[in-house]
Amino acid sequence: MRFFDWYLHASLHVALATTALVQMTFYFCYLPFNAAVTNLVFFGTVFSYNFIKYAQVIAKKKELSLFLKSILALSVVSFLIAVLSFFFLNLKAQLLTVFFGLLCVLYVIPLAKSKTNLRNYAGIKIYIVSLCWAGVTTLLPIVNAEQAIESDIVFKFLQRFILTLILILVFEINDLKYDDIRLKTVPQTIGVLKTKYLIGLLLIPFYFLEFLKVNYYGNQWIINLILVAVISLFTYYANPNRSKYYTLFWVESVPVLWYLLVVLFNFQ
Predict the structure, then answer these.
(1) Domain range enclosing 124
(2) pTM for this entry
């Protein structure tokens, strides 16, 4: 159980989720597997999430526990691998990576002449995270492959943005009793029940965007339907008294499940 806790808190599971979405982009856009993009996304996610979660904690502590030391070591290694992978991308992909990297930095470090970072601006957090997830997992592989941003890519981007938004809302329901009231999260603002209704509404465009794509895959309607059903169940049972494992493992497994369903239904 201790290793499992470390796996979750060291952001390896969330990195697996983002990497699964990248592999889906490779598959649906007929792109060959790209190790540089895959490594950048996986190890970049590990570093950025740990930076966001632990940078201020580590800076304030005079002596670090073995747990924090191991996460710090993993983060440093992840940063180095991500930087090395960065140099194997083309220029446009590098510029896109820098843009999302700056968003990550501003998410934690206060803006000039202000003690407030982007994370603490009321209501903005979920859109920043959703933008980063959708951009890194959809646009980055496409830009690096020098493919045009066509309508199908835009719909994929919107799907990923909505999916991330939905998963964050489930997180916010679960974290309601821990979140600072000044954050004004969606459940804090409109309540848990209305947040669940909002998730239900967001699942509609998430599902039907699939049918707007030119390159429509025959099995996608059932794959996405299964995903909608799973997310609906996670949403129904979400509440502030749930264990952290409910979101940190199960909810964050949704992108991995999506990828596994794609592999299963398209296995020849």
Answers:
(1) 2-265
(2) 0.91
